[in-house]
Amino acid sequence: MSRRAAVVAITALAPVSWGTTYYVTTEFLPPDRPLFTGLVRSLPAGLLLLTLTRTLPRGGWWWRAAVLGALNIGAFFPLLFLAAYRLPGGVAAVVTSVGPLFVIGLAALLAAERPTLRGSAAAVAAAVGVSLVVLRSGAELDLVGVVAGLAGTASMSAGTVLTKRWGRPEGVGALAMTGWQLTAGGLVIAPVALLLEGDPPALDGNALIGFAYLAFGNTAIGYWLWFRGIERLSATSVTLLGPLSPATAAVIGWAALGQALGPVQLLGMAVAFGATLVGQLQGSPFRKTERKPQEVSMDLTAPPVRR
């Protein structure tokens, strides 16, 4: 296995682990507490990573870590859960599956990278494949849910592009960067959760097990693998691994919950998986525009300079 293929395979473990979230949430956690769930997924994991790495941001990385944490975690988690609660029948997964298209557009806007036909076609095929996997007849659209899903997807897409663009400070590992973002995102969610959902719910043994898995396996390790992959691969290549998440959720639903998995769903998995493979073909899905290096500034259109 080539080095790049190994990086892709390891990064793919992140969306595969996220595909278990629905099963764990419905079978282990208290119902109707999406903000509390998002908070417990992010803040304990971030604090643990900060404790392990003992590294804090310096200088301009304080605001950068705050921006990335808000985009990738603080805004994304609540909006994703809101969409999932208001869009039954897998519509939420379809709405969020347009992430690669957002990434392609934002990379062109923020990093002067022109998308190729291959990258764009793979992004469209991934969305179609996910639609075939999760959509059911009679699924209803809810305007608030659709807007929340699109906003959440746009938020994480912007975070993905900026994570790739800014890199990380010299001497700081991906684990520390992950801790910064999870902590910042959790601090964004905390006051909103307290305001809208009130006191934390009572937790039984199953809930404690479920939250422990979501916080440390699904989130701390999952996001570390994700951000590590963004550093080594193109932003769109990483994002095109996203369809593995709803595909994993569908397989778990079939195996553990007795949900139907017919020919249409299998076709959708094949299409989504094919789009994922196309997105990982050697070479960038962008044509890069060369620029002269500049000093780091608040201008998001400036090229990244690591510090």
Summarize the entry for a quick read.
With 307 residues, the chain is mainly alpha-helical. 71% of the residues lie in helices and 2% in strands. The protein contains 14 helices and 2 strands; from the N terminus they run H-H-H-H-H-H-H-E-H-H-H-H-H-H-H-E.
Descriptive account of the structure:
By secondary structure, this protein is mainly α. Strands 1-2 form a two-stranded antiparallel ribbon. The longest helix is centred in the C-terminal third of the chain and has 28 residues, at 205-232. The model is unreliable at 283-307 (pLDDT under 50). The protein contains 14 helices and two strands.
Strand content: under 5%
Can you give the helix content as a percent range?
over 70%
Mean pLDDT: 83
Poorly predicted residue ranges? 283-307
- The 3D shape can be described as globular
Q: What integer value in Å does the Rg equal?
A: 19 Å
Number of strands: 2
How do the helices and strands follow one another from N- to C-terminus? HHHHHHHEHHHHHHHE
Q: Give the strand order of the largest sheet, numbering strands 1, 2, ... along the chain.
A: 1-2
* Main β-sheet description: 2 strands, antiparallel
* Estimated structural class: mainly alpha
Total helices: the number is 14
Could you tell me how far the N terminus lies from the C terminus, measured between alpha carbons in angstroms? 33 Å
